[in-house]
């Protein structure tokens, strides 16, 4: 007989486990049967398992119909297992013990997951926002060990997709491919320079064309700051080659303070330097230097446990 002529497999052949649900009583019924065997009374077993006596009787009768055997002999003095009932009870005990072991194992896995949290965050969020959130999380979950991994937004996305982090935070233009996310805050990028730079003395704002032509101290490609700046200046010829290209917000800020040249940094990162006049904000025309800050996680895997609690704290 050819493959084309062969009859399709039966439902049970297609899914061997599917028929089990029609032949094996549920755990609640098996636990009731074990209680009857131990206590010798359907009424006492019903009270112990938290059901009414009529409901308990109905469950036993339902099992007997399903299995095709009589499990109990009922009398005014109580309920006694039949010989078939004794066998079924022995098998039921093994099923319930296996279910208890399964539940204990899953609980242990959940507890182990909930005792650790790895967070990946882009530099500005890692340096200026996460410390406060993590202190608040420690107050609520003192037994959770938290590991923080910092990198640019592209690196954060890779860590999440590779399973190396439970929750991430990015600063780019949108949610990276393969991730879901939600906006938790908004941020503004500032053009800043040391007090002696000519831009700090001018009376008119810097135009986007001039900003695009100027060699700046910048973060590396892949950072959220660089993504926003590239997009904002794309219509003006794009960014000139960087004066310096550095891998951290702190390094960019230090170079700008030293007078190396103008830089573009998050408002979160330069508050102290602006207040102390170590840096000066340079006015720029246009409104393209703002961005959303996002919490992100692998698509379809909504944060749970401590990750979910940390996400709630960011709100």
Automatic annotation (TrEMBL):
PROSITE patterns referenced in this protein's UniProt entry, alphabetically: HTH_LYSR
Domain of life: Bacteria
Keyword Ligase in record: no
Molecular functions per Gene Ontology: DNA-binding transcription factor activity; transcription cis-regulatory region binding
Keywords from the UniProt entry: DNA-binding, Transcription, Transcription regulation
Gene3D superfamilies: Periplasmic binding protein-like II (3.40.190.10), Winged helix-like DNA-binding domain superfamily/Winged helix DNA-binding domain (1.10.10.10)
PANTHER family: HTH-TYPE TRANSCRIPTIONAL REGULATOR (PTHR30126), HTH-TYPE TRANSCRIPTIONAL REGULATOR CYSL (PTHR30126:SF39)
Family label: Belongs to the LysR transcriptional regulatory family.
Protein name: LysR family transcriptional regulator
Species: Streptomyces albus
């Amino acid at each position: 007989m050819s493959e084309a002529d062969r009859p399709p497999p039966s439902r049970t052949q297609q899914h061997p486990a599917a028929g089990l649900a029609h032949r094996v009583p549920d755990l609640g019924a098996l636990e009731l049967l074990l209680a009857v065997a131990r206590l010798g009374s359907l009424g006492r077993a019903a009270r112990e398992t938290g059901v009414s006596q009529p409901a308990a009787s109905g469950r036993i009768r339902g099992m007997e119909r399903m299995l095709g055997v009589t499990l109990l002999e009922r009398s005014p003095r109580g309920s006694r297992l039949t010989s078939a009932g004794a066998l079924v009870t022995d098998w039921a005990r093994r099923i319930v013990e296996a279910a208890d072991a399964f539940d204990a194992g899953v609980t242990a896995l959940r507890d182990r997951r909930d005792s650790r949290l790895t967070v990946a965050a882009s530099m500005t969020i890692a340096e200026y926002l996460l410390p406060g959130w993590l202190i608040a999380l420690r107050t609520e979950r003192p037994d959770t060990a938290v590991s923080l991994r910092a990198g640019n937004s592209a690196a954060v996305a890779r860590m999440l997709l590779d399973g190396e982090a439970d929750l991430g935070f990015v600063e780019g233009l949108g949610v990276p491919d393969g991730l879901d996310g939600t906006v938790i805050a908004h941020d503004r990028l500032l053009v800043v320079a040391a007090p002696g730079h000519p831009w700090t003395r001018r009376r008119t704002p810097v135009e986007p064309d001039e900003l695009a032509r100027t060699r700046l101290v910048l973060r590396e490609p892949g950072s959220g700051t660089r993504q926003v700046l590239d997009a904002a200046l794309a219509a003006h010829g794009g960014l000139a080659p960087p004066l310096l290209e550095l891998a951290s917000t702190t390094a960019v800020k230090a170079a700008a303070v030293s007078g190396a040249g103008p830089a573009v940094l998050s408002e979160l990162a330069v508050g102290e330097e602006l207040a102390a006049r170590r840096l000066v904000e340079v006015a720029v025309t246009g409104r393209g230097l703002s961005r959303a800050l996002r919490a992100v996680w692998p698509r379809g895997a909504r944060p749970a446990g401590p990750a979910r609690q940390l996400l709630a704290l960011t709100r």
